[in-house]
Specification:
- The structure holds 2 protein chains of 2 kinds.
- In chain A, strand 8 and strand 9 form a beta hairpin.
- In chain A, 12% of the residues lie in helices and 52% in strands.
- Chain A contains 3 helices and 14 strands.
- The longest helix of chain A is centred in the N-terminal third of the chain and has 22 residues.
- Chain A has a 12-stranded antiparallel beta barrel with strand order 3-4-5-6-7-8-9-10-11-12-13-14. In chain A, strands 1-2 form a two-stranded antiparallel ribbon.
- By secondary structure, chain A is mostly beta strands.
- Chain B is an all-alpha fold.
- Chain B has 2 domains: 49 residues, no CATH class; 118 residues, Globins (Globin-like, Orthogonal Bundle), CATH 1.10.490.
- Chain B is built from 10 helices and no strands.
- In chain B, helix 4 packs across helix 6.
- Chain B is globular.
- Classes of the chains: A mainly beta, B mainly alpha.
- At the A-B interface, helix 1, strand 6, strand 7, strand 8 and strand 9 of A face helix 1, helix 2, helix 8 and helix 9 of B.
- Bound molecules: protoporphyrin IX containing FE.
- The site of protoporphyrin IX containing FE has 21 residues of chain B, from helix 5, helix 6 and helix 8.
Chain lengths: 288, 175
């Protein structure tokens, strides 16, 4: 039920916003500067690796469309996570994303009696609206670019996640992100506050009450094409007996051209049912 | 068109707020985020009318750009890039390129605390009625970055100059 509401809200927004203004655009695409649309975070929104930023994805300016698509693979000690999706940006103002997170339980699946390589799929619908500021241009002001967004997560393993203690399989996260490029310091900072009840990014459904979580990213620009940085993301811990931890990553992002970005990271996702899940994160993004 | 767009976005968010009754907490979070950003030291000095403020923290910034001869070389490459870039060519091809380059050298020299006094027009007057878009502005920045790279200007120093120039978009970009 809620799933339907959110899906239709997302698509009403998509059709409503895209058709009218976007089709009338005559300007080109892709005029913003390299890496200023961020990359695609694991839930499909423009951001870092683990957290959405206030930047609008793609390279479209205030009178252009932007778009990007991505594929991400994370290989931790006991699992693998694939994430892929696309986003559409209108006038550097609104961003709509749709993505899939495919979580492979590998041998843990077998030990839970689900068979090895059991997969949980989450489909995530995202919308983000930039509400104030310009992270890139307003270099004489400390006001960050601020965006609010929603990520609705539709989990396909209703029975499983409920048997693990989730109250619901599907649900929405709400966030506000503040991003600022401190260009004189070659530094980009982001802070995101998220209201969520998602267990393990939504892979294990939703439990308990909405709680605020904090996410932070810092990236240092080494060249026009290369940024290095680190991120932190706190998460709820609502499933009895299945401890959940804060996630971290350290990354390098490289954009050889405007249409391509490669992100390599080392991620520590903490305990996910078993063990401490660390491993390599690689992401490819095509942007316009 | 942009306004309709914004309005749509706001309406959607409004419905989201209503449905979940989270408006107050989201607003509080937004405030906490904005207010909580660290107040790092500003690098730009006081405003001086026709161009961006001079960066006055007494570093070797001007030397990083190779002094005035360095700026002259950068501007030659910069203008070549602007004329080779289909987005900026229509603006610069018919203009007095030698004059613009000379003015840019003066302007950048003043911003970089190189002891020059910029004698050209203020940015709003110089760009009035040109219809410069945000995309054109970014195109020019990209062409400048490439010229600075070609002249081996340290990236961090490039960014200090660009940070001083960026706010001028308000006087240059028209829509
Ligand atoms: C921060 C960015 C910019 C800076 C610092 C800048 C600086 C200048 C300066 C110093 C002049 C000479 C003023 C004078 O004659 O006294 C000038 C003129 C000019 N600028 Fe810019 N400019 C910028 C952005 C742009 C952009 C984005 C465009 C178009 C794509 C543009 C197109 C022109 C043209 C065509 C002229 C010559 C105007 C004339 O013939 O009188 N500028 N600019």
């Amino acid at each position: 039920m809620t799933s339907k509401i959110w899906t239709s809200a997302a698509f009403a927004a998509l059709t409503g916003c895209v058709c009218a203004p976007a089709m009338a655009q005559t300007a080109g695409m892709s005029d913003r500067l390299l890496l200023t649309g961020g990359v695609s975070e694991v839930e499909g929104a423009a951001g870092g690796g683990l957290t959405p930023w206030a930047l609008i994805g793609g390279y479209g300016t205030r009178d252009q469309l932007g778009a990007s698509g991505y594929y991400t693979h994370v290989d931790t000690d006991d699992y693998s996570l694939e994430s892929f999706g696309a986003l559409l940006a209108v006038n550097d103002r609104v961003e709509f994303s749709i993505s899939q997170q495919r979580f492979n339980l590998q041998d843990v699946g077998a030990s839970l009696g689900l068979g090895s390589n059991y997969k949980i799929d989450v489909t995530t619908y995202g919308a983000k609206v930039r509400v104030l500021g310009d992270a890139i241009l307003e270099q004489d002001s400390w006001i960050p670019q601020v965006a609010v967004g929603v990520l609705y997560k539709d989990n396909n393993r209703d029975t499983l996640v409920k048997s693990l203690g989730a109250d619901h399989s599907d649900g929405a996260d709400f966030y506000v992100s503040a991003t600022k490029l401190l260009l004189a310091h070659s530094l980009l900072l982001n802070a995101t506050a998220r209201l969520t009840r998602a267990n393990q990014f939504g892979i294990l459904g939703q439990s308990g009450d909405y709680k605020p979580e904090f996410e932070g990213s810092a990236a240092y620009l080494l060249t026009r094409k290369i940024a290095v940085g680190a991120e932190i993301r706190t998460k709820p811990d609502n499933l009895a007996g299945l401890k959940e931890d804060t996630a971290y990553d350290a990354f390098v992002a490289y954009a050889p051209t405007k249409n391509l970005a490669v992100t390599l990271a080392y991620a520590d996702l903490g305990n996910i049912v078993v063990g401490d899940q660390r491993g390599l994160y690689i992401s490819l993004q095509a942007g316009f | 068109m942009r306004h309709e767009n914004l309005f749509m976005g706001d309406q959607i968010m409004y419905r989201i707020y209503r449905r979940t009754n989270l408006s107050v907490s989201l607003a509080a979070l937004a405030f906490a985020c904005t207010a909580g950003l660290p107040a790092l030291a500003q690098t730009a000095g006081a405003t001086s009318a026709p161009t961006a403020p001079t960066i006055t923290d007494g570093t070797r910034l001007f030397e990083d750009f190779g002094g005035k001869p360095g700026l002259v070389k950068i501007m030659d490459d910069f203008m070549d890039n602007l004329l080779a870039d289909s987005r900026t060519k229509p603006f610069f091809a018919p203009a007095d390129q030698a004059h613009i380059k000379a003015m840019l050298v003066e302007q950048f020299c003043q911003i970089l605390n190189g002891g020059c006094v910029y004698s050209g027009k203020d940015m709003a007057t110089a760009h009035a009625g040109m219809g410069v878009t945000e995309g054109d502005f970014y195109a020019l920045v990209e062409d400048l970055q490439k010229a600075m790279n070609k002249n081996h200007i340290p990236f961090a120093s490039q960014n200090r100059l660009l940070a001083a120039l960026a706010p001028q978009h308000r006087d240059i970009v028209e829509k």
